[in-house]
């Protein structure tokens, strides 16, 4: 009887260890998913990196539109400064953005979604959609860097016509950041390189989360 109890106790202990260790192993991948989708320590209000990027991008796109509609060089420069603040507050500290920036949020999302996919326990679902989310986030970061480049040029120029051309490009890019762009003219906007924006990244993030239950 004592031997049976010992064996039973050991068996139950093994079951408990398995029950505890398996979710713990799965936690690493899901934790990084959560950083992208749900919450991250240094974002405004602790929001996820991807929602933070979207919120900042909406501000940038709004002010890009205001810059495009400005009637003079001063107006263009004023609103482009606001765009820059939402894209990268290290470049333009003052403005209507949330103080985090599209660029930092997109780079963070790309990093953490790849950490989720690289975890030992990551499912095929995570690995597949992490490629989609990460690629779109990379596009957003690249486009954000181009906006910073153009914005600095606009701020430095005294040529209103040249500024207007660059503002039009900024407006186009900020829309691509939000919604992606049909770069290959096939009639659809995918998550792929040079196409996917935050809309596509969010869509595939949602698919990933649903796939993980």
Question: How would you characterize the overall build of this protein?
Answer:
The longest helix is centred in the first third of the chain and has 36 residues, at 2-37. The protein has one domain (28-211). It is mainly alpha-helical and 213 residues long. The protein is 73% helix and 0% strand.
Name its key features.
about 210 residues, disordered N terminus
Q: What is the subunit arrangement here?
A: single chain
Give the rounded overall mean pLDDT.
90
Give the termini separation: 43 Å
The portion of residues forming beta strands comes to under 5%
Q: What portion of residues is helical? A: over 70%
Q: What's the helix count?
A: 7
Major sheet size, sense and barrel closure? none
Q: What integer value in Å does the Rg equal?
A: 23 Å
Please state the structural category.
Answer: mainly alpha
What is the total domain count?
1
How many β strands by DSSP? 0
